Amino acid sequence: MPGFLNMKDREYNKQKDRVRKRIDDWLYLTGISQIWKVTVCYERLNDTDNRPNWMSTFRCDADWRYNQAAITAYLPTIENLDDEDLDNAIAHELMHILLQEMRTASKSHNDHEERVATSIAQVLMRMRNIGSVPDKM
Fold it and tell me: Cα separation of 87 and 53, whole Å?
């Protein structure tokens, strides 16, 4: 399966630039960049998240006490996403920054957090795609 080997420099740089621009846009759009310090790391290898037949697109680690977060982008998986799917994945991951402080003592995300991150990302995607308040409102 593509992506399990290191990406060549040219493709790595292409995907890194693509992701960086889109993350910057979403950080601005959501206002997260005004409140949080977000570091983005780029990986040449996929992460299976210890699940068979699974490849992660992103991983988010946030410390709400200090408004700091790190997002890891797994570029071999991202390479296969179109721009719409990439934007949806980024919006979803950014929601984990805001939701992470609600985790229980287990410090691991749960199905409820995933569901809420997905739902909010879908709302953000719809709002972005509309671009402005429709005349019907």
Answer: 23
